[in-house]
Batch of 2 targets.
Target 1
Amino acid sequence: MPKITRVYGGNQDELPLRVTHRKGNKKKAPSIRAKCPCCAEAVVIFPESRPTGNPQIDSVEINGVHASVAQWRELLLPILGIGSIQTLTIRGIGMNKLHTHPVGAGKNLFGRRLKIGEVLQKIDRLDSPSGDWESIPGTLVGKTIKNNLKIYIRPAAI
Ligand SMILES: [Zn+2]
């Protein structure tokens, strides 16, 4: 039997999550199982077995749902209160709105501002000092936003 780790989240009065790390073998990849503090329900997570470090390529399976690391970040980080400056909306994460350029008069862009922790995509734009919303440089594609120094906008599909 794998060893059970009790996760309290800093509060010993709370019932712990019971977590087991299962080693992989020829048939099964390594997994992490977290059992509900109150019942037999559990979530089973299969991390990427051969991580490349690119969150858009690496994938994680959670309870049978396969998605990229980048997709899980988009979904889970705001819920967990990490890197979130926007709140969850009914439609999804963040809100699409019209952004005015900080220096470019009349240069408006419809989309949502990306948060710290989100991964930049080819379609994203940034507030260039030229006064326009320029495409992000190719070197930034797949990179994680580390600070709020630049305004990164993901244009909304129309
Ligand atoms: Zn339960």
Target 2
Amino acid sequence: MPTQLDNARRGEPAIRFDGVDKRFGDNVVLRGLDFTVAKGDRVTLIGPSGSGKTTILRLVMTLEEATGGYIYIDGEPLTHVERGGQRIALKEKHRNEVRKRIGMVFQQFNLFPNMKVIDNIIEAPTHVLGMSKADAVAKARQLLDKVGLADKEDSHPSQLSGGQQQRVAIARALAMDPEILLLDEVTSALDPEIVNDVLNILRDIADTTDITMLIVTHEMQFARDVSNRVLMFDGGRVVEEAEPDVMFKDPKEQRTRDFLSAVLRD
Ligand SMILES: Nc1ncnc2c1ncn2[C@@H]1O[C@H](COP(=O)(O)OP(=O)(O)OP(=O)(O)O)[C@@H](O)[C@H]1O
Ligand SMILES: [Mg+2]
């Protein structure tokens, strides 16, 4: 039976930014940022270095907190609500509940260095979701198999190549069965010859699941293959938004054209 909450969530976007501001001291990174990501959407964010792409993902993951505005996940406020014209912070417990539905893979892998591969993967499912160790291990093994690392469960991250560490990080994110997956330049720290292995795993996830994805990448072919929408982002705002074919072939805004010609030249 769908609950009242399920009914309320139906039709709501997976992610909605409503007038989001983010400042670091005097540095205003986002100002009044509005955008939505529909459920099951695969959205790529592009934009110049320092424009705030990582910050957007970190806000969704609650690793940073917005200084103004509201972020909604499935229609539920993430960290703040508006009540009587006031911006009120929600309790830590509420954030943690909402964050359970979100996974993130980082440029620098961010595995727990002192834990074996298998323990990296079962950590959150056992501690955050309360899954039994046996179930978590069984699921972790399936995921390791899926990312081609079935033989590495007892290794430590330092014993793995960058590409292998990133595949573990992907398995770790998937172990939480996220509804939303955030990918921040996940191949930028990898040697060119293994970039495609990691991208192929992500393509497979995109093809075989309905996970909503918000992707920051410089891999334009990957963005084209996987995403159904591209947001060009600069100066704290969305400058242009289009399907990948349109965005990469025939962008409307001069700012987008300049950016793409600089990136594609590299
Ligand atoms: N923890 C922080 N403390 C202070 N300033 C920060 C912090 N994190 C990010 N910034 C600043 O916020 C701005 C946006 O940074 P962000 O990392 O989001 O950019 P980006 O678009 O991801 O860039 P890149 O393409 O280089 O990864 C930058 O000016 C950066 O210096
Ligand atoms: Mg970044």
